[in-house]
Amino acid sequence: MTAAEKQDMAVLMALGVGILLFPVLTTSFSAIHHYLDIMVFVGIFSLVNIGLSLLMGYAGQVSLGQAAFFGLGAYVSGVLTAGFGWSPWAALLAGMVLTGLVALAVGVPSLKLKGHYLAMATLGFGVIVFVVFNEEVSLTGGPSGLADIPGISLGGWQIDTTVKYYYFVWAIVLAVLLVSLNIIHSRVGRALRSIHGSEKAANAMGVPTSLYKTRIFVLSAVYASLAGSLYTHYMTFLSPGSFDLFWSIKFLMMVVIGGMGSIWGAMLGTCVLSYLSNEWLHIFQDFDILVYGLILLVVIMFLPKGLVSVFRRR
Amino acid sequence: MEPITLSGQLIQYAVTGITVGSIYALVAIGFDITYNVTEIINFAQGEFVMLGGLFMVFFATVLHLPLAMAFLLTITVVMMIGLLMERFAIFPAKNASVLTMIILTIAASILLKGAAMYGWGKDPFVLPPFTDREPFVFMGAAIFPQSIWVLGTTLVVVFLLTMFFKHTKFGKAMIASSDNRDAAQLMGIDVKTMVMVSFGLSAAIGAVAGMVITPVSMMEYDRGALLGLKGFGAAVLGGLGHFYGAVVAGFIVGLVESFCAGLLSSGYKDAAALMVLLLVLFVKPSGLFGSKEIMRMKDF
Predict the structure, then answer these.
(1) Radius of gyration over alpha carbons of chain A, in Å?
(2) What is the pTM of this model?
(3) What domains are defined for chain B?
(4) How far apart are CA A108 and CA B118, in angstroms?
(5) Interface test with B, best of A116, A135, A136 (most B CBs within 10 A)
(6) Which of B99, B112, B123 is the best substitution to test chain A (most A C-beta atoms within 10 A)?
(7) Contacts with A293 from chain B: Cβ below 8 Å
(8) Interval A251-296: pLDDT, tens
(9) Is there a contact between A76 and A238 (Cβ–Cβ < 8 Å)?
(10) What interface predicted TM-score (ipTM) does this complex get?
């Protein structure tokens, strides 16, 4: 094990312990009782952002359509369980497969593009998917939403309280983190970083860059889909507003503010921004968007490696 | 009232398409100008259109200024915003990567959108047409005089810009800065100023687009992103950097959108316009009029 791997494993352990103990804290202080609920969302959004971080920070590709993949997972789960009586687990897997295929279809031509063009292509794709959610009323319920989505259970054990869902979601997040850290520290991870450094040089060294880019794009979409399914069964209600263009930008902001180029940065950014929007920016109401823009601007200008770089010596 | 015929209906869609298409063309030209000089795609380009519309509403209907004066004031204000954006966000980041630049201009667009929501609220605003309200009938289609204003303004803007870039020293200097930054600098051209001017100019053109379209389709704070995206589609379709290409492509995107709304489904019209964007990007990213060689040289 290299030093970097050891360090990541230590952080993962610490995170695991923190996750385990956090509910003790929230139940002992009534003022932060609802923090557990926010942490469920932090977990769900973390899944999206771990994928985005792999794509942006490691492979150096931008996606402004991540909310569409998140939404695809959410709607496949919602429609199949509420409308067709599927079991939530089967629907969740179906969502991941379908989203993966869609990502493959979009990714193969998109990833030939670079920089601006890729950003615009994913942005356009995201808006198209959003329009479909709104227009296919017979399937998705359209703008008025999709209700009566059942909860999820694990081997006959109904995950029906916030505490249960919290542990359920975070167990999945930790598993996904473990998988992702393995990818980062493997041959594939090094290949991805070489693409970020210089695609031409990577190609010359024999790295099949387009193959790796496509794979990581599909993986990030599958993560987002998983997150969407978990979101669906926690909310038990869906409306297209949670998957619009601004959400794609919000995911991007979480990763950038936390720190591109590090999974921990993505996690930190997700946590900070989720608490900001759910808790600390209430006084601004709708104008939180102004604060977001400002934070993003300040971070990218003065702290280009994100908040996580504050914790890093060197 | 005459009966509505099929051909009249089709002409109606075509007129609507050309009208909104003109706006996409103007947005595309805005992208082209900043891109030509800086090789930056300004993701906030659509916000200038929104700001143009809303400032025009403020000057013309709240302050009751004469139309021409409101027009000039709006251009000035939005241009200032474009210049400030360059000075405070783009300029300090000089040598940033493409990824950073994308995020920077996205941050700027969020800020502008948020500021507009703060200033105007969330409701859409109406602006009376510049001249006559009553539509006239042309080949079975009812045409609002404002549509003529939109199309006419677009053509005038394209003509003036072509003149500016081809026949004035300043315009040529801007083109030179885009062709080769270092060489232009050595020839005594102040490239920094050129970059700033390109942002001001593209903001001004966005503002013009916003002012002429608001009487047709109203304006609210969150319209910028979609206008920007469709305008970008037109810019790519026309071949990034080509003014006349942008106009033709803008019309194509507008026509696809309005015929989809009329014949297929009005809910899917945005999706149809964006499908055009995706198709061009996937099939021929150099666009209809752009050259492959130039595409390969530019760094995306």
Answers:
(1) 19
(2) 0.91
(3) 6-297 (1.10.3470)
(4) 41
(5) A116
(6) B99
(7) 107-111, 113-114
(8) 999 999 998 888 999 999 999 988 888 776 666 666 777 888 888 8
(9) no
(10) 0.89
